[in-house]
């Protein structure tokens, strides 16, 4: 358990730099000026040390220290630019949101907050520093959501095309694990800059094909978001890859390194590390056709009285009065009341846990006792149940998610490039 937590903590600490301007011991020189901010040499060294430990723990080969230092500094510059933009535009993470997030992290690792605090302390991580790093992570995530994610629209046609590709295109039933290197180009790149970058990228391709370690080269040279993970993109289906990659990867054998691939972001190099077949299994669930009546208490004093009122309504229904007619007149759920309390066919996991638990106990035609949820007092009746194959619905949801992720990644890379190009950055080392 401790190992799981520490991996999580270290990955978060590597992703953003620690602002330590109040610690005099760090003020031993300036590594870079970023608009109105600075990155000190001490901050850079602290970040570099953390990344080296992570790479060593993951068993990755380290590139030349000068190249790694340059790569880490560039990541810190991008983080600084994003964080400062978030601050200027009013993005703030309040303490309640922050505390809830940290509590969720602890819960996911089956720890109480006190136990989580103790684990961090034992591993030399100051809880206050960790807390502020999480605040920064949340700030950057909210900035990305506003600037990139919310601007991406996935249409029904996009989803249909994706699913058709999965069925008909060569390689559509495969998953691919790619490694990736991006040699980024600035907007408005000059012909001379383009020529130099292309030559450098071509030299990397040659070195990789001659046996150089791809992870080491990605760590040293890539401007991609996964550079410090050795350029490893993990397992992805064909439709989850950028289109320019998908057309090439189906023709590659495992271990192949691609020719240079040009995109608006720059020059890309990909390696097909692994591939595997994916079988599609049908997903069958039990649906219940149900209807309910909700009584909402007006206030705390009305809690007991509202339950009594619903008990009486239930008794009338059991004695023969029409459930639907009573629901239309007396239910406080406006959405279902007009339909006689009907909820239609209900999938597992859709309702709040208390409602789901009561519904699961009922045989067809049976009416539940009065029970409480956060919405008020309920009774529910299950009319019938059926097995339902929702495979296609799940495929559509997964397709939309995959397309959104791909488009967001592509746009985020371009947005970062614009942010970097428009900033004043002066390197001091």
UniProtKB/TrEMBL annotation:
Signal sequence interval, chain numbering: none
One example GO MF annotation: peptide binding
Keyword Signal applies: yes
Spans traversing the lipid bilayer: none
Single biological process term from Gene Ontology: Gram-negative-bacterium-type cell outer membrane assembly
Entry GO terms, CC: outer membrane-bounded periplasmic space
InterPro entries: OMP_Chaperone_SurA, PPIase_dom_sf, PPIase_PpiC, PPIase_SurA, SurA_N, Trigger_fact/SurA_dom_sf
Enzyme Commission no: 5.2.1.8
Occurrences of domain PpiC (ranges): 173-274, 285-384
Family annotation (PANTHER family): CHAPERONE SURA
Protein name: Periplasmic chaperone and peptidyl-prolyl cis-trans isomerase of outer membrane proteins SurA
UniProt organism field: hydrothermal vent metagenome
